[in-house]
């Protein structure tokens, strides 16, 4: 790991340590002094720029009163903080699995999300998200509302003062899959049209021309932060995958280029979505 290119693990560890320090009402200088370090060193650790030693992290955890499973988890993260690529299999809860993604989205300058099946999470309406979870049958009913709220909280990143740029690329079939029924789909498409008025949001649709395209292997997100390597995010039912290897990143960037060659531009995508919304509205009204 170089000082300009932190790993996902080092950023996660830094976020956790900063949250713990703030919860203990300690300044950077005060906390650093207690482990015989400088404030600048602790700042680099908290931003993920420097990989900390297990001894430094151990000292901080004692200072912050952290023990038990949480202590073991953070010390393991410290020992692996220079490793690139992270298959998160030890986060059983949905909110825990989303934590690293939310953090990376908050730091990103640009986000590119390709989706072949459903609307990208950052652009889903609440009722659409709820319908996905309910119709799929894989989310227990008591967990649906909490998961929906967790996902909707991610939307705030697009409306903050200095938001990342979002490019959402979707297969046309996403817009024709009536998740939640025609009314829910129509309102979802109308929300996408509204999102297109935001200066930091671009939506491009890959038309259904009957041919396979480069995105047939599934959804993924590319997160970029100025001066750092991109991170690829992919999700399964039970785990999250963060790819940082240069060759893997190049493969996904190639896929994005080929998808972009096939996709309609934003103007064409807006026209397609508006037409679909009108058709759904007409079907609802029976005209």
Quick take:
This protein has 287 residues and is of the alpha/beta class.
What does this structure look like?
- With 287 residues, the chain is an alpha/beta fold.
- It is 48% helix and 13% strand.
- It has a 7-stranded mixed beta sheet, with helices on both faces.
- Strand 6 and strand 7 form a beta hairpin.
- Helix 2 crosses helix 3 and helix 7 packs across helix 8.
* CATH class label of the largest domain: Alpha Beta
Structural class: alpha/beta
**CATH topology description of the largest domain:** Endonuclease, Chain A
> What is the straight-line distance between the termini?
61 Å
The average pLDDT score comes to 91
Number of helices: 11
C-alpha geometry: elongated
Tally of strands:
7
Poorly predicted segments: none
**Beta-strand residue percentage:** 5-15%
Q: What is the radius of gyration?
A: 21 Å
Strand order of the largest sheet: 1-7-6-5-2-3-4
From the coordinates shown, what is the CATH architecture of the largest domain? 2-Layer Sandwich
What are the salient characteristics of this protein?
287 residues, elongated, 13% strand, 434 Repressor (Amino-terminal Domain), Endonuclease, Chain A, alpha/beta, 2 domains
SSE blueprint and pairings:
Layout: H1 8-23, H2 28-34, H3 39-46, H4 54-63, H5 68-79, E1 86-88, H6 94-107, E2 110-115, H7 126-136, H8 144-153, E3 165-171, H9 182-195, E4 201-206, E5 220-224, E6 231-235, E7 240-243, H10 246-262, H11 266-285
Parallel strand pairs: 2-3, 3-4
Antiparallel strand pairs: 1-7, 2-5, 5-6, 6-7
């Amino acid at each position: 790991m170089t000082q300009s290119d932190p790993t996902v693990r080092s950023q996660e560890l830094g976020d956790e340590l900063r949250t713990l320090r703030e919860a203990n009402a300690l300044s950077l200088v005060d906390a650093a002094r207690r482990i015989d370090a400088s404030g600048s060193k602790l700042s680099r650790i908290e931003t993920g720029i420097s990989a900390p030693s297990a001894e430094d992290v151990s000292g901080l955890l004692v200072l912050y009163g952290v023990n038990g499973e949480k202590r073991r988890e953070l010390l393991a993260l410290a020992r692996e903080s220079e490793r690139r690529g992270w298959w998160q299999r030890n986060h059983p809860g949905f909110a825990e699995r989303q934590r690293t993604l939310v953090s990376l989205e908050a730091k990103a300058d640009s986000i590119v999300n390709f989706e072949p099946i459903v609307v990208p999470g950052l652009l889903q309406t609440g009722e659409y998200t709820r319908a996905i979870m309910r119709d799929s049958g894989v989310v227990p009913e008591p967990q649906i509302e909490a998961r929906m709220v967790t996902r909707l909280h991610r939307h705030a990143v697009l409306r903050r003062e200095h938001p990342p740029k979002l490019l959402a690329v979707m297969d046309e079939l996403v817009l024709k899959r009536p998740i939640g029924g025609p009314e829910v789909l129509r309102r979802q498409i109308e929300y996408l049209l509204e999102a297109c008025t935001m200066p930091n949001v671009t939506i491009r649709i890959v038309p259904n021309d009957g041919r396979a395209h480069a995105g047939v292997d599934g959804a993924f997100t590319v997160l970029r932060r100025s001066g750092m390597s991109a991170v690829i995010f992919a999700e399964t039912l039970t785990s999250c995958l963060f790819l940082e290897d240069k060759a893997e990143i190049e493969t996904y960037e190639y896929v994005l280029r080929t998808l972009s060659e096939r996709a309609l531009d934003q103007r064409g995508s807006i026209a397609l979505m508006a037409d679909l919304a009108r058709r759904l509205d007409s079907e609802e009204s029976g005209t």
